[in-house]
Amino acid sequence: MKIFVTVLVLLTLVVGNATTFVLVEGPTLAPWVDPIQIKGNLLISVETRAGTGVQIWGTITDPDMDPLDTTITGVDGSVLIVDPNGAYTWTWHPATSQVGVHYVIMNTIERDMGQGLRLTDTATFAVKVLPANQPPVITYGGCRLLNP
Description:
9 strands, mainly beta, 5-stranded antiparallel beta sheet
């Protein structure tokens, strides 16, 4: 039995007072992803900046309609919400101390209903956190007086 997971990603980019939302459909694979770190299927690889948010959502379904328990590991400060119909949303606002590549592992397991065998599925979100965007800098280069 395979638990099916679909995924979409919403990136929140904030520049000055403007907020831009970018929708990315997975799966994609960036060159910085280390295949050894992938557990189960790689659902998406996405880059974001510290201080901005990333939100991934999709569905978790079981063809047998067994109740499921889902957990996320791999980063601190993220939130996973799974509704009773299997729609999930994972949100993370990485801090400046979290710059680097993170492998977020989603594990779904059938709830123990006294049947013995509990099947699982595991998937990975690869998130590369870049340093916060810095504003451009204008510097003084010198001055010269010109004669007419």
